[in-house]
Amino acid sequence: MAIVELTNVVKKYGDVLAVESFNLTTTEGEFVVLVGPSGCGKTTTMRMIAGLETVTGGEIKISGKNVVGMIPRERDVAMVFQNYALFPHMNVFGNMSFGLRLRKLPREQVERRVREAASILGIERLLDRKPKELSGGERQRVALGRAIVREPQVFLMDEPLSNIDAKLRVEMRAEIIKLQRRLGVTTFYVTHDQVEALSMGDRIVVMSKGKVQQVGTPKELYQNPNNLFVAGFIGSPSMNFIRAQVTDKGTVSAGENFNVALPGQLAEAVRSKQLREVILGVRPEHLRLVGNGQAENPIPGVVDVVEPQGSTTILQVSVGADTKVIAQVNEQWGRQPGERLQLSIPPDAIRLFDPNTDERVAA
Ligand SMILES: Nc1ncnc2c1ncn2[C@@H]1O[C@H](COP(=O)(O)OP(=O)(O)O)[C@@H](O)[C@H]1O
Ligand SMILES: [Mg+2]
Fold it and tell me: What is the pLDDT of residues 144-173, one digit of tens each?
C-alpha cells in the first residue's frame, strides 16, 4: 500500500491555469475522490500523477519516492479511463493481459493474474469475447481487470462509470468500493457527481476552476462546507442561500416575516467580524414544517411547486416578496401549490457565509 503526496502541484497550459497548487497526502489504501464541475482540473491532476502529463511546478511522491520526471511505466500506477480504451481486435484475455505481456512477465504468471482478476470481477466466462460482444458494464469490468492485473501501488480511475446507465452505475460503485477494500490499493477516483463522491470517498477533494476548495470526509463536507461553492455543490437538492441583514439582537432578518435567532457562538462570530450582512445557508432537508405555536419565529410561506419524490416531497416555497426556499419534507403526497404553511430552521442547521469572501463564518 502506498502513500501518495502531492505538494504545490501546478499545471499551466500556456495562459490557462488548469491546476493551481494542489496539496494532498493520502493515507495507505485510502479511497480519495476528486469531484467538481467539468473543466475544474480533475483529469489533469490524474494525468500528472500517472505521468501522462508533465507538472509545471510542485512535487509528486509515491511511497516516498519523487516520481516527477519518471515515465508512467516506472511509477507503478494503473489508470482506468472513462472510455475504457479497450483494444477492439483483442479478446478480453488479450486486453487484460496486454500490459503484463508488454512487460514480458512469464506466461504462467500472466495467466494466473488474469484468471484471478477475472474471478474477482465475475467475468471468467467472457475471456474469449471481443469488446463489441460485451455490455457497457462488462466492458467496464474488463477495464478494471486490466488495472488489477498490474497489481499497482496506486489506482487512478477517471469517471469510470459515466458511460453506463444509472441503475448499473449504483451497483458498480458498490463493487468498486468492495474491490478496493479487498485489494487495499490507494485509489484516486474522479467524478463530477457529488452523490457518487459522497457515497464512495474516504475523503473528497472538491475542485473548482483549477483550485482545491476543500478536502474532507463526506460528513465534514456535508456538515461544514468551507465556502459557498462547496456548500452549493455538495448535497442535493442544493443548500438554500438567503441574503440576510444582521440585527443588534443576535438575529438575522430577510424581510419582515423572516427572522432567525442565531445560536450564541454564531452570533458572537458575526459580531466579532462586524458583519452587517450575511448569507444564511440551510439545507432543504433541515427545514421543518411547523404548526401554530410549535416554533419560536416561524417563517410563513406559500407553496409554489410540489415535487413528490416517492419517499419524500420537495417543496418550492415563497417566504417573502422575493425570497424562495426549497424544503424537502418527510411526507409522501398531499401538498398543494398555493397552500400556506410555516417553516422553521433548527438552530444547529444554520450556516452563515460572509458575502464579501464567500467563506463560512465559523462559530
Ligand atoms: N492539453 C490541453 N491543452 C490546453 N488546455 C487544456 C488541456 N487539457 C486540459 N486543458 C484545460 O485545463 C482545464 C482543466 O481540464 P480537465 O483537467 O480536463 O478538467 P476536468 O477533468 O475536471 O473536466 C480546462 O480548462 C481545460 O480546457
Ligand atoms: Mg475530466
Answer: 999 999 989 999 999 988 877 888 888 889
Which residues are 351's β-sheet partners?
281
Domain ranges across the chain: 4-233, 240-285+296-353
pLDDT tens, 298-313? Answer: 999 999 999 999 999 9
Report strand pairing: 4-13 vs 77-80. unpaired
CA-nearest of 232, 228, 230 to 220 is 230
CA of 192 to the centre of ligand 1 (A): 14
- How many Å apart are CA 167 and CA 14, to the nearest integer? 41
- DSSP one-letter string for 175-206: HHHHHHHHHT-EEEEEES-HHHHHHH-SEEEE
Name the grid cell of 52.
Answer: 501522462
CATH 3.40.50.300 fits 4-233, yes or no: yes
Pocket test of ligand 1: the residue of 10, 13, 162, 233 to mutate, having most ligand atoms within 8 Å of its CB, is 13
- Is 165 in a helix, a strand, or coil? coil
18: CB partners within 8 A, 6+ apart? 11, 12, 41, 44, 210
Structure-block grid coordinates of residue 34: 476528486
Q: Using the atom order of ligand 1, give the atom closest to the CA of residue 37.
A: 22
CA 98 to centroid of ligand 1, rounded, Å: 28
Average model confidence (pLDDT) across the chain: 94
The model carries a pTM of 0.93
User: What's the gap in Å between 65 CA and the centre of ligand 1?
Assistant: 27
Residue whose C-alpha cell reads 512487460 in the numeric block: 103
State whether residue 128 is helix, strand or coil. Answer: coil
How far are the Cα atoms of 2, 44, 185, 282, 337 from residue 262, in angstroms, in the given order?
A: 45, 42, 45, 13, 30
Fold of 240-285+296-353: OB fold (Dihydrolipoamide Acetyltransferase, E2P) (2.40.50)
- Helices 136-148 and 107-121: crossing angle in degrees, nearest 10, is 140
Whether 29 has a pLDDT exceeding 90, the answer reads yes
Using one digit for the tens of pLDDT, what is the confidence trace for 222-239? 999 999 999 999 999 999
Q: What is the pLDDT of residues 171-220, one digit of tens each?
A: 889 989 988 998 999 999 999 999 999 999 999 999 999 999 999 999 99
Three-state DSSP state, 137: helix
